[in-house]
Amino acid sequence: MLTDTHTHLYSESFEQDRKEMIARAMNAGVSRFFVPAIDSAYHNAMHELAKDYPNNIFLMMGLHPTHVKENYQEELALAKQQLATHPFYAVGEIGIDLYWDKTYLKQQQDAFKIQIEWALEKKLPIVIHARNSFEEIFEILDDFKTESLTGIFHCFSGSHAQAKKIITNYNMKLGIGGVVTFKNGKIDAFLNEIPIEHLVLETDAPYLAPVPYRGKRNESSYLPIICEKLANIYHVSTEEIARITSENATKVFRV
């Protein structure tokens, strides 16, 4: 049993073949899909998916940092309303992204703090998007240091020191996806020094497809490729990687 802890199944990229794509993933052994939010434009599509696959698809709610703009407070109000009226398994994906644009850094910081507070109130984990922003995110997490705050640093692509800090200081798991298969991904150089108990698997579909599909549309059926890469890094079977990372996901999401 494989668990994809981060997949945008509602993406427009799957408009033509969504059901077939999910079936391919299930046939490949992926039995659970955790679906992060982006903004209110996708809320209805997320609920439709969860309704169609009630035993396999688990939703998160939040405002993605790249979608924090002038109207971010309106978007946060809609996300908060969703959290009050529907079951969700995490607040996410949330965080800070300084890769494309730094214009809304202050707004991103504000939105991140507000959504962490929701997670603590609701006793939910958080799923963090961190791109060119580890230090900014650590600074905010330092203000919320509490054992009750748990979650995942999604699509982890940082350094060994950052990985250790995330695990030790913030009680978070590392989301490992297609980057681990990239030649310039770098994390494969030190990952074997991190116990598997701190990792979860993800695709971030339709983004960041693993080699040999790099540059093409990603999908959850490619999760076994990431599992196999970790099996090679840790010198254990793919079954062992699947079992431990799925157990880790269960601990985070409590499902």
How would you characterize this protein structure?
There is one protein chain. The chain has 255 residues and is of the alpha/beta class. Helix content is 40%, strand content 15%. It is globular, with a radius of gyration of 17 Å. The mean pLDDT is 97.
Key terms for this structure?
single chain; TIM Barrel; globular; alpha/beta; three-stranded parallel sheet; five-stranded parallel sheet
Average pLDDT, to the nearest integer? Answer: 97
Strand content: 5-15%
How many strand units? Answer: 8
Identify the CATH class.
Alpha Beta
As residue ranges, the low-confidence spans are none
Overall SS class: alpha/beta
User: Helical region count?
Assistant: 8
Largest sheet strand order: 4-5-6-7-8
User: How far apart are the first and last residues' alpha carbons, in Å?
Assistant: 14 Å
Shape: globular
The domain tally reads 1
CATH superfamily: Metal-dependent hydrolases
Query: Percent range for helical residues?
Result: 25-40%
Largest sheet: 5 strands, parallel
**Cα-atom Rg, whole angstroms?**
17 Å
- Please give the CATH architecture: Alpha-Beta Barrel
N-to-C series of helices and strands: EHEHEHEHEHEHEEHH
Looking at the structure, the CATH topology is TIM Barrel
